[in-house]
Amino acid sequence: QLLLVESGGGLVQPGGSLRLSCTTSGFTFEHHAMGWFRQAPGKEREAVSCISDSGGRTNYADSVKGRFTISRDNAKNTVYLQMNSLKPEDTAVYYCARTLYKLCMNIVREYDYWGQGTQVTVSS
Predict the structure, then answer these.
(1) Band of the pLDDT at 114, cuts 50, 70, 90?
(2) Residues 35, 104: contact at Cβ < 8 Å?
């Protein structure tokens, strides 16, 4: 059973913070780079961040760099996205996804398994 389950989304005011978690099972988690994507209504799914298998390398979209931090705990098979200084334009469904590779990619089609998503809404 290969599963990716996101949690931690919710409603937050601008400037607030949320931490998203993606708990996985059914595969060798530490062999895969993991990514976070988001999709707002009417927009294409976009890459937010990615972390390599060991956690040693990370990538961020320019729109979130300096505000979001991706991390992983391979002992817990979990990847996190700490989101600070949230803006209304961060509102989206956030998905975690698995790559077939150890190093990060920011192309949607290179991710083979996806979670169901968790809603993040940033609004006053």
Answers:
(1) very high
(2) yes
